[in-house]
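call fold(seq) -> tokens
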Amino acid sequence: MTPVLELNAVRKSFGAVVVADDQSWSLDQGEALGVIGPNGAGKTSMFNLVTGTLKPNGGSIRFMGQDITAWSAARRCRAGIARSFQVPQPFRGMTIYENTYVAATQGAGLSGAEAEEVCLDVLGRTGLLPKANVLAGGLTLLDRKRLELARAMCAKPRVLLLDEIAGGLTENECHALIDLINGLRSTGISIVWIEHVVHALLAVVDRLIVIDFGARIAEGDPHEIMNSRAVREIYLGIEADA
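ret:
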């Protein structure tokens, strides 16, 4: 089976600063892939390369079997690659519904009744439907995170990239988010999730990748990776013999 997303020896640097060092990995249909690494490791830059807001210095990116390395960010979004941002960025003066409608029309290219149907369905699944007419600027952190996810979902993605969406949430809010993301997985969407809240990742992902200085240093079963020497020393800052 052809992977839904493939990075092949992707490289990106800003002068001497390397943010992607021969990144090579793939994502299967319906799979959830977790990504961890210390701050500044290049995780968000990797998302920017996948979505097209950064152009690589080398290597290639394939989506649904097609080479999309030269595609614009808008074309990639229309094709089915959507993302959330670490810091939610809603249109604060618009309602929740209006925010999602923009995503459905501009991100997915939908219009009229079809766009409205998608928005209402996503708002229902994310628990935001009762607040559809509330201005986004006054939302709680959890609801801003939900709206960030809802907007990405309204772009009708095949691949959904989540950037630290659990950060700052309470334990109960985090469990609610985990349930929501697991529910989205049941629809067949493939997910790549960058997260520092490790227990959230372990409740969702099938596989885990560790990135440091732009390079993939470990990959495999999430629980085995979290107990590995590389993660203890590099990510958690614990001596291997501690």
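The chain has one domain: 30-205+217-235.
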